[in-house]
Amino acid sequence: MQRHFPDDVTLQALAEAPALRFNSKDNLQQAWVRQVFGQSATLPSHSLPSTQGFVDACRAGLGWGLNPAMLVADHLASGALVELVPRATFDVPLFWQISRLVVDRLQGLTQAVLAAAEGKLERP
């Protein structure tokens, strides 16, 4: 924050600060910028296809990125991570997909996933 956003998080500052992307299909950071600032920006970025590595890279100051709230809640509480724009969240729908060929065999796993998600994830 001190290096890339010393005055404030602006569209120009975001266009110069390194962003993190999970992979080449990850457009969440760009979508967040459009939601918050009402326009797009070209973001310099690093790809990091590891959920924990993504968090660790943010903590190390290698870039900024969107992370699941549950995954970074402790880091936010401790100050190890900060919100770029306070309360500017970006909700992403999640879907449980399995092949219909194995749906019967994975019924127990499906129920376990649904039970774990209940109360932890917000419904739209």
Automatic annotation (TrEMBL):
Keywords: DNA-binding, Transcription, Transcription regulation
Protein name: LysR substrate binding domain-containing protein
Pfam family membership, one: LysR_substrate
Top-rank taxon, per record: Bacteria
Residue ranges annotated for the LysR substrate-binding domain, each copy included: 8-94
Lineage: Bacteria, Pseudomonadati, Pseudomonadota, Alphaproteobacteria, Rhodobacterales
InterPro entries the record matches: LTTR, LysR_subst-bd
GO molecular function list: DNA binding; DNA-binding transcription factor activity
SUPFAM superfamilies assigned to the protein according to its UniProt record, in alphabetical order: Periplasmic binding protein-like II
